[in-house]
Design brief:
By secondary structure, the protein is α+β, with helices and mostly antiparallel strands. It contains 3 helices and 15 strands. Helix 1 packs antiparallel against helix 3. The two termini are 20 Å apart.
């Protein structure tokens, strides 16, 4: 595994950047995090062996131990399900409930009121990892990221120094090119406000503040 040092986060100015199509998952083998239980800084280092990620996490402060093989997840959850009203059968009930607490109750059913008969029915639900759109989280276990910085336009975040290098090279470029027509790359899926030239200075300052954390 190649490691990038903090000094690598300040590349020479460039007027051109070419998006080579690397997806966000290409940077997810090494993720700087804050422990979901005690907020201590930590690192999630995993490997991809087709067709699944392998690895574990252990917090040096509180001892929280997680394993991908056990499908451990401590991040936000969303519960979704559907069924017809158990009283009138008139409407399909489709609850969507988000859970952000560290210790999840792991619901199997959610009570939902029918809009037709106004009675409650227990709807079976399944839990899925929730990835908030406005702030990145550790994709493997759900920890908060360590490299997160707010701007007046939105939140900038990165998994690691290598991710930070790519973001800064892209944002600072005056000419941006894309290799092929894929829309699956990390850069093609960045929020529009990060791509706007009028926000370049604010975003670069936020990226520089993140790079300072790596020194």
């Amino acid at each position: 595994m190649t490691h990038v040092t903090a000094t690598d986060t300040a590349p020479a100015p460039s007027h051109r950047h070419r998006d080579r199509g690397a997806p966000l998952a290409g940077y997810a083998d090494d993720v700087l995090v804050r422990c979901r239980r005690c907020d201590a800084p930590g690192r999630v280092q995993v490997s991809w062996r087709p067709y699944v990620w392998h690895g574990s996490f252990h917090c040096a402060r509180c001892g929280l131990a997680l394993d991908l093989a056990k499908r451990d997840w401590v991040g936000p959850l969303v519960y979704v399900g559907h069924r017809a009203c158990g009283h009138c059968g008139h409407r399909w009930l489709a609850p969507r409930v988000e859970e952000h607490a560290f210790l999840h109750a792991r619901h199997t059913h959610v009570d939902m009121q029918c809009p037709a008969c106004r009675k409650l029915s227990a709807v079976p639900v399944k839990a899925h990892p929730l990835f908030p759109a406005d702030c990145g989280i550790d994709p493997h276990f759900g920890h908060p990221l360590q490299l997160v910085e707010s701007t007046r336009h939105g939140v900038v975040w990165a998994y690691n120094a290598r991710h930070l290098v790519e973001l800064r090279a892209y944002v600072s470029a005056l000419l941006r090119e894309r290799r092929g027509s894929t829309n699956r790359s990390l850069l093609s899926r960045l929020p529009r406000w990060i791509k706007l030239a009028k926000n370049r200075e604010a975003v670069l300052k936020a990226l520089d503040r993140l790079a300072a954390q790596l020194v």
